[in-house]
Structures are given as C-alpha cells and as structure tokens.
Automatic annotation (TrEMBL):
InterPro entries: Snapin (IPR017246), Snapin/Pallidin/Snn1 (IPR028119). This is Biogenesis of lysosome-related organelles complex 1 subunit 7. The lineage of its organism: Eukaryota, Metazoa, Chordata, Craniata, Vertebrata. The keyword Coiled coil applies. The keyword Coiled coil applies. One of its GO terms (molecular function) is SNARE binding. Pfam families: Snapin_Pallidin. GO terms for cellular component: BLOC-1 complex; BORC complex; synaptic vesicle. Keywords: Coiled coil.
Length: 87
C-alpha cells in the first residue's frame, strides 16, 4: 500500500511539473510540488518507523516462543524452575 501511495505521489509530482512546463501562462505549481514532496517524506518516515517496530515485535515474539519452549521442556523433564512452587 505504501508503494502505491509513493508511486501515486511521484506520478502526481511529475504530472504537475509537466503541466507547469506546458502551460503558456506560467502557473506557480512549485508550492504544490513541495507539499507533495513533504508528504512523501513524511510517509516514508512513518513507514520506516513501522518497519522497525514490526521487526522488534518479530524478534520479541521469537524470543518469547524460544523461552516458552525452554520452560516447557524443563517442566516435562521434571526440573523445578527458579521461583516455582516445590512439590
């Protein structure tokens, strides 16, 4: 979805530049182009933040699964875990 948004924004920016060059009457589209570029920068920034958060969550989930498997193996082997009630 992000690629679609960025691609659309790039196409809009290119189209605005082309229209600006084709117009006999010079329209000042530079502010709009700058707004689009700023929007693109913010979208890319948010995407990077979300990707980093997703990667951290993936690693956390992996570590939790690994610890769960380790504890399950210890329980099945009959070894008491620290802090667990004795029988």
């Amino acid at each position: 979805m992000l690629q679609t948004i960025v691609r659309t924004e790039t196409l809009l920016c290119n189209e605005l530049c082309r229209i600006n060059e084709d117009q006999k009457m010079a329209l000042d589209l530079d502010p709009y182009v700058k707004k689009l570029l700023n929007a693109r920068r913010r979208v890319v920034l948010v995407n990077n933040i979300l990707q980093n958060a997703q990667e951290r969550l993936r690693r956390l989930n992996h570590n939790v699964a690994k610890e769960t498997a380790r504890r399950k193996a210890l329980l099945e082997s009959g070894i008491l875990l620290p802090g667990s009630p004795s029988k």
